[in-house]
């Protein structure tokens, strides 16, 4: 199949920049796509970070330390931007104004004001396609849950719980980095870092909280800086958000949690929905399994745990009995983004990447959560504004 080549620039050649390069390098994994990304230029403020790309990605023609030079390159159609949160607003806005499509990393601005500036730039450039990175909903088990929600299987929803839990920060000897500093990561702390992952599916399902009560915790107050000095670890480690959701037909509690310090959880993303007719759960702890509990009045209440087949949004060479993993979800997310760039709304499967509106909604929730923790009150959210 001949493919439309999308010429990408990468701004921010750290952890996530390399994940994109790796996904682009195994594009042949996807069997039925008529498009492919080609990373032609890279930029990082730290010149040594671009070196990995020059050594490992043969399509790279140019490397920059100033992203404005990369944006001036007319051979670039689209940008992946993965930089610290304090740089999102300025760089995303410049990308959009340069007329390049953008897959930007969450949280899409360090705070709500930064996010509003990005939203404004998007409004002023409607021809540019902008999406927010969020890969976990592309796990087949998560896709199965989305299908069950679409099919309205749950009856009256009893409650929803979704979370993203890490454990590496339990180690007090782990060095400080930009993600532990308010100036670079933001006041949201763990919510800004992990929250969009948790909210992507609930927001896609239309489950916007009408109110939020937040409990935020700082567990490790200081960390080594790598030069023998202990420095303040400023950001929230863990956040628990008790939300009340009201839709046209449902009202239920939704508990959202983002934790950097959850002993035993390396990288656990999960969603659990219980309902009077059906309940379901998917967690990346058991990435191959999806659990469901159908219920008819008076009947048995038994969880069914099935191995979810490797049945991804975009078809791949992998057989249905094999396991799906993190890098597969990244590849699927990239397929969805590239599909939109080439086919606009006519993408080949229904699950599109997180939108800037969804990222904006996450900022409304995190800002309310900060206010809730500050005041000790439940904060109502008026979505009409
Ligand atoms: N989707 C996910 O699963 C996921 C996972 C981790 C991080 N992230 C997000 O990705 C983004 C980057 O995180 P990371 O873990 O890759 O961080 P990182 O620290 O590994 O990489 C960030 C890179 O940006 C570079 N940089 C800093 N200032 C720059 C500038 N002015 N111009 C160009 N480059 C600059 C740094 O030198 C560094 O190489 C953040 O928004 C983060 O929230 C997403």
From TrEMBL:
Organism of provenance: Paenibacillus allorhizoplanae
Keywords, comma-separated and alphabetical: Oxidoreductase
Top-level taxon: Bacteria
Every GFO/IDH/MocA-like oxidoreductase domain range: 143-247
Enzyme Commission number(s) from the entry: 1.1.1.369
Record lineage: Bacteria, Bacillati, Bacillota, Bacilli, Bacillales
GO MF terms held by the record: oxidoreductase activity
Cross-referenced SUPFAM superfamilies: Glyceraldehyde-3-phosphate dehydrogenase-like, C-terminal domain (SSF55347), NAD(P)-binding Rossmann-fold domains (SSF51735)
The protein's name in its UniProt record: Inositol 2-dehydrogenase/D-chiro-inositol 3-dehydrogenase
